[in-house]
Amino acid sequence: MFRRLTANTLILVLGNGGSALLAFLLVISLARGLGSADFGRYASIMALVLPLTLLADAGLATLLTREIARDRSQTMAYLAQAVRLRLWVAGGLVGVVWLVAGWLFRDAASVTGLRLAALMILIDTLFGVYTALWRAWETMLPITLLNWGLLGGQVCVSVLILSRGGGLVTVLAGLVAVDALQLLLAWLWWRWQHPPQPPALPLPTGQSLLRVALPFAVGGVLAMLQLRSFTLVVQAIAGAEVTGWFAAAYRFLEAVRLPPLALFVALFPAVAALSWNDDALRRLTWRMGLLVLGYGLLSGMALILLGAWLVERLLGPAYTQAGQLLPILGLASLPFLLRQLIMTLLYARGGEADANRRLALSLPCKPCSPPR
Fold first, then answer.
1. What is the C-alpha to C-alpha distance for residues 200 and 78, in angstroms, rounded to an integer?
2. How far is 234 from 244, CA to CA, in rounded Å?
3. Exposure string (b/e) for 48-86, b if CB count within 10 Å is 16 or more?
4. Radius of gyration of the chain (CA)
């Protein structure tokens, strides 16, 4: 099991690293090709679409991964009901966005662009069903390859459209088309690996699935609030310039956290599958704890000793203060990783209520300060 866990972690590390690079290239191509005004419209549209996609997921993907990892005979039953729920919930949100798009934006390009981009809510949540199934079956390679294909295709399509004089609406149409192609390939890949067959168990009701998945949805919202609240606290205390330094330093911290976060994704279904084997689970937990502890200490020391030098060399002297922040963030690296390990174990073993309480208690409080 440890060998399979190591292989899945390496695949996810490579996948996340490649995806981050391709996403960066996509941002560069859009920013340069659209111009500041249209790129600002694009950013505003995606700022609406991405949280709605998280809302449409409703914690269902995490629930599917855990429950199917425990009993793979339930795969077809969960797949059928999850697709139905996605069509109703995500499809309903797409309809709402289409109705209110004219109230959210005034210019025609933004309204049309939002209506096009809203289709990603449905497409991405349906794709999330298949990624949840692959995680449950501890098969990470399709997820990595399909994500690379998506981002690489979006980069190529955006460059092609912009080179031919296309604008915001045309670019968004191209991005949605590539997104839909990724979903089609995921469906075909899954069908090739798992030919269609009747569910071995009765279909769980949509209401029961949503009710059980609710704590996972709450956990996702709390995690998003936690990431955002730190930025808000810095903004409230020190203003926009220091917030920029903090954001720059935090990018380096995210890069350091990439391997253990990939490990936690691979660990989640493995722990769920061992939920009834206390001895094996105890050995795995101790091994993962020591691994995370060692990595956290080494990476934290590296950030403390080399962080300022790296920031100045890669970002330039304008970000010297960000380099001074990075050692401070490095000190918090180990507690963060250990907490994430505990959260992963709790979610995998059915302790999502306890995990959410811990997340809620760890949210930083915004201090009393003058409004921005």
1. 10
2. 10
3. bbeebbbbbbbbbbbbbbbbbbbeeebbbbbbebbeebb
4. 22
Lookup result for tokens 């722990």:
271
As a whole number of angstroms, the distance between CA 252 and CA 304 comes to: 12
pLDDT at 367: 36
Q: Are 352 and 214 in contact (CB under 8 A)?
A: no
Q: What is the pLDDT of residue 371?
A: 31
Half-sphere exposure at residue 354, Cβ-oriented, CA atoms within 13 angstroms: 11
The residue with tokens 């599917």 is 64
| C-alpha distance from residue 288 to each of 94, 137, 267, 270, 271 (Å) | 41, 20, 9, 12, 11
* Residue ranges in the chain modelled with pLDDT below 50: 240, 365-372
Question: Given 3-state DSSP classes, what are the helix, strand and coil percentages for the chain, each rounded to the nearest 5?
Answer: 85, 0, 15
Q: Closest Cα to residue 137, out of 278, 3, 268? A: 268
- Nearest to residue 121, comparing CAs of 61, 62, 57, 175? 57
pLDDT tens-digit readout, 273-288:
776 677 877 888 888 8
DSSP string, 154-176: HHHHHHHHHHTT--HHHHHHHHH
Quickly list DSSP for 206-266.
HHHHHHHHHHHHHHHHHHHHHHHHHHHHHHHHH-HHHHHHHHHHHHHHHHHHHHHHHHHHH
CA 313, 317, 318, 321 dihedral sign is positive
Distance CA 300, CA 294 (A): 10
Half-sphere exposure of 327 (CA within 13 A, CB side): 10
